[in-house]
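Onboarding guide, step 5: your first structure request.
Type a short instruction followed by the sequence, for example:

Predict the 3D structure of this protein.
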Amino acid sequence: MRNGSEEILSGVYLIGGPDVTQADDAAIYLIDFAGELVMIDCGAGRSSSQIVRSIEMLGLDPSKISHLILTHCHIDHVGAAPFFRERYGTKILIHELDAQAIETGDPIKTAANWYGTTFPPTKADQKLKGAHEILKFDEEELHCLHTPGHTPGSISIYLDRAGKRILFGQDIHGPFNKAFGSDVAAWKKSMQTLLALDADILCEGHFGIFQPKNKARAYIERYIEDYE
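The system replies with structure tokens like these:
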């Protein structure tokens, strides 16, 4: 591992990504809910053992990862999903509009062809539906918002903890590609949804963690301006 994991907020960690595991991994986040662990995205698939080591180095038990929430179907976010299900029985969650891509191992929709690799067809244990689903862990609520644009089933996730709102908004920057089913008009509406959350911390998929609130907002607004 290069720079190691980072605690972003009490019990919320960055455990993988380009500067932590492998260069082709999107950011990987972990939330500790009183011992039950929830992972958000899981990299491109080559760094499974490094992710496990990241978790263990935090003093946490990777076998406690009950759920892996995939923010969308691209390989740099979903690659290690089969590993975590097989080894730990982790349940895989993805929005229903992106589920088919991982369940069929579609090389284009998963962007596996971009990475010169393949993704094995992998069943989703739970398909998120509609605009807003709330998942309850311990006594907290994890909010999953449908934020289409980059892909049809892209989601963003937020958690209110320790007096802060932390937003996991992966791939806000795009890219937008017809082969992915991208929709820039839908994306603009999604970005307004994220701005309305007024998050204190933004955890992005490729470009890091933005805080305080004004920096989180400025990051989103910058990309909205780019596509005006």
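Each response can be followed by summary notes, for example: Residues 6-226 form a domain with the Metallo-beta-lactamase; Chain A fold (CATH 3.60.15.10).
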